[in-house]
Amino acid sequence: THPDMFKNQDTPFLAVLTQERLLRLLLRYRQLTLDLILLDEAHNILEDTERSHLLAQVLLIAKLRNPTVIVNFFTPFIVDTDNLKIKNFPIEIAKGVAKEYMKIERFYGFDVSSHEFFLYDQFLNRRVDLENQTSINEIEFITTKRANKNIIYLNKPRSVEEFALNMSEVLPDLEISAEVSNVINSISSFINPNYNLVTCIKKGVLFHHGGMPDIIRLYVEHIYSHYPEFHYIITTSTLLEGVNIPAERIFILNPNKGKGYLTPSQFKNLIGRICRFKDVFNTESGGLNLLEPEVYLVKGDSAPDNFSLFSFFANKANANLKISDKVKNPLLVQTESEPENTRMAFEYLENMERGTSGLEEIKFATTSIGRSCYSNNIHDFDIIENEQRLDRNLNLYRELNQEIDSAATLIDAIIIIFFNGIELSERSHNIQRIKEQESARNFYKMFIGWRIQGESYPYMINRFLKYWESRIEDDDPEIYVGSRWGELTRQGHLALWVDLNEKSTNQKINLAVAKIKEEQEFIDFNILKYLEVLNELGLLALPFYDNVKYGTSDPNKICLLKNGFSMELTKLLLNHYSAYLVINLERETVSYGQELIDYLRERDVNDVLIFEAESNM
């Protein structure tokens, strides 16, 4: 969970890493080599996104350091394996293809307005009209056609929560068992009693999206899988990769992922979440009927007006469809990208690790701040173009003789050194706000202060509500919430804002939960990059660096946090149950046994925290 977990030693190790953490690891330990890389969901490398570029870049660095490194690509969605080849990465790809038609989906289309209902035959690319349905809306149709466990797909987190609440209003109250009552109390205590998820649980409905606290999202997967009372889970594309939950039917209410339609591979990946083989062949609950999963595509209030059910099936599910790979990553051999994009991507890579591109006439950073910006993967501005200005800003800041030891001095230093006189890229919306708006700067000083104190969700929610009340009193009720939750536009075409005057207290509480998650991610993926640069330049007070990065400078707490524990569980275990832990600070390991879990249950500890402790054991 942190690159810092690695100990620079000769002992072989296994690691599960995102490409961001792998890059940090490789750049921190310049002698580190890898022998074997297993790359899951490998089709993502074809895309033209920052994360896809980074994926190719870390593979190139690994290959440069160890020419004999073995890379295994795992994907069900590549037509031509040559499309996976990376420039300056001389490999031949041997492929093994597993084709199975053990599962044959039954695709159904339903139009809410016309009541038309049909079966799509994916082998003959035709529709077979069935008896019209009398359902008056999506919810009624779902409850009519549901199985015991059902996935309902929508595109945006805001849509997911709104639909879950609407569904909860029409479903009967759940007969609350002692176990479900414990779930309700635990989430209420961990987050807030007015959290939308608590309302939905009381009706047997769960939701799952990227705007939820990570541990709550994992807890939702757990209770959906283990409690028979929960028949519905309403989700976004967070379910697309690596989430395996028992489900028999899926209802797709919106055909989009992001701004466009689901691609054929994304559609297949999504419907592959139902009727997993482990559920089909489960001796207690399985059955061969699950080899014909039922997929329902619904055109109702949640779908675009011009959406055609049959055309979508024909373009995504047709068994005879000839699918071609779209290679957009500029670092791949078969790329459709412009040569200039390839040159820029390799120039960035060369500045992280020399010798990886094989290109000549590369522009290299010549200053310590420029090199540090590259090694910390900063993309908010053109580093080479702004390097001399960055260096002047740094020298001017050093003359102030100001040690960075608080959230306020950190934000001020970032603005003075990295943003003064520097043009930011169009994609850096949040960073642009910090540069231009005093209210945004004040907000992040406050939020980083909470992080330094390791504050809980209930505390942060209450502080958000007070902060927003002050904004309303100052007649400044429009707040930035990003594209996931935005409803209003301001000087642009993207809905990134909401008006607090139009929100009830309950809505503000749930908006605060989402906002906390978004801001935590922004700090982790954006602000911490600048923190690392400032630390490498020797501008940070040491305890402050740890406090921002981990929310504490206590070495025992840091050890648990590095091992994947949340701050809430870390505090609980160290304050009350440390006798059950074996902590080795030299090796940075923590271990414990089942007796701790049993004791936590005996003491009626919050079930979310017990679940987390059990998962980490």
What features would you describe in this structure?
The protein is of the alpha/beta class. It has 23 helices and 17 strands. The protein has helices at 19-28, 50-65, 138-145, 157-170, 178-190, 196-201, 214-226, 264-271, 277-280, 309-316, 339-352, 368-375, 383-400, 407-419, 429-436, 438-453, 457-473, 505-536, 542-550, 555-562, 567-576, 594-602, 607-616; strands spanning 36-39, 70-73, 106-111, 117-121, 126-130, 150-153, 205-208, 232-235, 249-252, 256-257, 260-261, 294-299, 478-480, 488-489, 495-499, 582-584, 589-591. The strands form 5 sheets. The protein has an 8-stranded mixed sheet with strand order 5-4-3-12-9-6-8-7, with helices on both faces. A 3-stranded antiparallel sheet has the order 13-15-14. The chain has a two-stranded parallel ribbon with strand order 1-2. Strand 14 and strand 15 form a beta hairpin. Helix 14 (407-419) crosses helix 16. The protein starts with 18 loop residues before the first helix and ends with a helix.
Record the SSE blueprint.
Layout: H1 19-28, E1 36-39, H2 50-65, E2 70-73, E3 106-111, E4 117-121, E5 126-130, H3 138-145, E6 150-153, H4 157-170, H5 178-190, H6 196-201, E7 205-208, H7 214-226, E8 232-235, E9 249-252, E10 256-257, E11 260-261, H8 264-271, H9 277-280, E12 294-299, H10 309-316, H11 339-352, H12 368-375, H13 383-400, H14 407-419, H15 429-436, H16 438-453, H17 457-473, E13 478-480, E14 488-489, E15 495-499, H18 505-536, H19 542-550, H20 555-562, H21 567-576, E16 582-584, E17 589-591, H22 594-602, H23 607-616
Parallel strand pairs: 1-2, 3-12, 6-8, 6-9, 7-8, 9-12
Antiparallel strand pairs: 3-4, 4-5, 10-11, 13-15, 14-15, 16-17
Helix pairs in contact: 1-2, 12-13, 13-14, 14-16, 15-16, 16-19, 17-18, 18-19, 20-21, 22-23
